[in-house]
What we know:
The protein is of the alpha/beta class.
Amino acid sequence: MFAPEGVDLEHPNVARVYDYYLGGKANYAVDRVFGEKALERYPFVAPAAKANRLFLHRVVRYLCKQGVRQFIDIGSGVPTMGSTHQVADEVVDDASCAYVDNEPVAVAHSRILLEQEEVTDQHTVLHADLRDPDGLWQQIEESGVIDVEQPVALLLIAVLHVTQPGPSGEDVGPQAVARFRELLPKGSYLVISHGTADDVPEKRKQEMAEFGKMYDKSSTPVIWRPHDEIEAFFGDFEMVEPGCTWTPLWHPEETGENAPVIEFDSPNDSVVWAGVGRKA
Ligand SMILES: C[S@@+](CC[C@H](N)C(=O)[O-])C[C@H]1O[C@@H](n2cnc3c(N)ncnc32)[C@H](O)[C@@H]1O
């Protein structure tokens, strides 16, 4: 596979390894070696990643039905298993989407997809970083695809458990999200999913810790937050029913006709906690 400029081929990367878990092809040998080892030791990861992706699909369908027509998908990753604009297009014909990622391979593949579908006047892809919310917001405004004065759905799906080091190394994810909450116009929605080891059986907790440790040597370490810290990302936003929950439990009635069936013994096997908040 070609390597866009700036891509780190020395270390596995969370975007490309996640693509591997989902069965995609936008990954390199370094990512596949890492992914194979992870799935061999922790097979629960692949269904958890797929269930996370299906949560994204259901949220987009649900929000389109609530009247949302603008989506900002930050940490959008490699387009696999149905992307935000494709799911929105199943429901409405006038939705716009801005994809944002800081990983060059994810950005390149998203651009190729939009070009192939000839939809670059309706949707866009930005190579940008969520740690700079104001700069990112300006880029979104300049793209001309999203009207930042009108309500949007801001998606932060499986991205905030990727460590977001600030200038002194501390995780600035919570600060960045707080700034996004301020920037969002009233009536906007904030969508978050996040890996957690809270309320999972002891054995799975141990596996989550070991699996997380594997990422310490990657270019993108991860952090599993407890439920209360994930809920804190929503600040004073009104939570959409049923509030934060395990991904398979969030509006299962929005499951697509052809969605793959992911079986879990128990919902907490999905190890990803998710919710949607609305700015009143
Ligand atoms: C696990 S993937 C999730 C992809 C997609 N949101 C999903 O849930 O299917 C995390 C994505 O977040 C991106 N990411 C991590 N930190 C980021 C940052 N600071 N700014 C923008 N994107 C980031 C990674 O490159 C990767 O594509």
